[in-house]
Amino acid sequence: MTFTYEARSNLLMLVDLVNSGRRDVEDLPDPASLTEFVRTHGFSGPLTGTATELERVHAVRSEFATVFGADSVESVVALVNATLLRCNALPQLVDHDDWGWHLHAVAQTAPLADRIAIDIALVLVDVVRDGELSRLQHCAAEDCDAVFVDFSRNRSKRYCDVGNCGNRAHVAAYRRRQEAAEAG
User: How many other CB atoms are there within 10 angstroms of residue 121's CB atom?
Assistant: First the structure.
């Protein structure tokens, strides 16, 4: 699958959203942090900056965290379809900011949580249709619960970019080999 700029951006946004609420981590604790998340990911439209808006985004995060390591394609499809229905999706091409022509499925005035959910649902449509759901992964490090999207050609990525997990795993393996060589 060749990921378009929009698809890659939305998948990375999904990863950032899910990773913002891992075990013992809350990177979206208040409306100010949500404002920064929205700015970082280039969302247009209104932002109320209320606790209610933050709660709704947390709910979207919980819903879509399930797509990483999903038991079945059907469960992801059910979530996507429910989201499209709940948000009254009506796809339309738009051109704003530096994005060029791209797809929106809710009005710019829709609640932020709906705009986030729809962007995720739309990118998951492409991922499911292309049979690439296996690219949505959990980090292989034993002490990490972060998620990532494997954009590599050969689908070989095993570690997230959150906690330096790949480097830590390689250092630990090196040390084990050194100890074994010294013992043997």
Answer: 24
